Amino acid sequence: MKTRIVTAALLAASLPAFAASGQDAVAAPEFDVASVKPSPPPQSGTMFMTGCRMPDPGRFECQNTPFRMLVVRAFGLDDFRVSAPEWTTSEKFDIAAKVPAGSSPDQVNLMLQKLLADRFGMVAHRETKDLQVYLLTVGKNGPKLTEWKDGDTLPAMTPPPAAIPGGNVAGSVMPMQAERRVVMGGSSGPAAGAATPGSAGSVRFSTRGGVSTMEVNRMKLSTVARMLESHVGHHIVDETGLTGFYNFSLRFAAGESAGSAGVIVTRGSSGEPLPPLADAGSEPAPSIFSAVQNQLGLKLEAKRVLTEVVVVDKAERVPSAN
């Protein structure tokens, strides 16, 4: 019992101030001005950006971002630590806000909390839940991964074809810092060529005909674990003990989270998107669990963990007028 209490206390301490619940007596910081509106539906075969970013210290922007992910960003949590109504996954919004000069990242998150409370009437609270997570471990026969070596190069970032045959394709590209969590919208770092310490790796993801393919270059497994979370529906903890950067390909059966018609592309600092991956093929695809074990030599093992979460009690589906 003592271990469970200590674990919960440590997790509670990691949560930021809970401005959106109205429990904080100190006035929360807020954006100088903000526009919030529902995102227009994407058209099949077109490219669009998704996620939140700060293109410069004075601007905060979100494009085509599900309400749930706005909550995740506002509280600085992993997705699995947010409990929200089902509609918050499908309803998406665009935000354009002016950030007061000198604001820190934590203050910007608090501003987003206040914005969600003011414009969506969001009410939320904290509680401790016994949640299922997955441990990513090395299989009994060892990993089947190719370690990144000095002199290896990242895939060239070239424009995609004007149209993708076959339809019902969802593909995404996430250039990112090797140590950073995948954040839709890209990050700094070279787009191609030899990588240097701290430079970007790349992920190329595509779904076609119920089969997902993922091509990873220069990534830590702790980062890969985060990318796989949406495909298993639970948080993944990297316990492989493997600390290098790796290249690999993964092919598995697509779940509901794999996407829908159209092409989803995020861009790196070069502004050029990667082309979609090749056709995933006609062979039946294994589950994500079998694919990780047989193709990567790793395992996903279920475990229950007492965890502090944010629960969204109420929020309006339509924001108040700008």
Descriptive report:
The strands form 5 sheets. Strands 8, 10, 11, 13, 14 and 16 form a 6-stranded antiparallel beta sheet that branches. A 4-stranded antiparallel beta sheet has the order 1-6-4-3. Helix 2 (67-75) crosses helix 4 (105-120). Mean pLDDT is 74; it is low at 1-25, 157-199 and 256-280. It is globular. The protein folds into 2 domains: 2-130 and 308-314, no CATH class; 143-296, no CATH class. The protein is of the alpha+beta class and 322 residues long. Strand 13 and strand 14 form a beta hairpin. It has helices at residues 2-13, 67-75, 87-90, 105-120, 221-232, 288-296, and strands spanning 33-38, 47-48, 51-56, 59-66, 82-83, 92-98, 123-138, 146-147, 153-154, 169-173, 176-177, 193-194, 200-208, 211-219, 235-238, 246-253, 263-264, 298-314. Helix content is 19%, strand content 34%.
Quick summary:
This protein is α+β, with helices and mostly antiparallel strands and 322 residues long.
Strand content: 25-35%
Cα(first) to Cα(last) distance is 49 Å
Low-pLDDT stretches are 1-25, 157-199, 256-280
Number of strands: 18
Which class of secondary structure composition applies to the elements?
A: alpha+beta
Rg, Å, rounded? 20 Å
Principal-axes geometry comes out as: globular
Mean pLDDT across all amino acids: 74
Counting DSSP H or I runs of 4 or more residues, the number of helices is 6
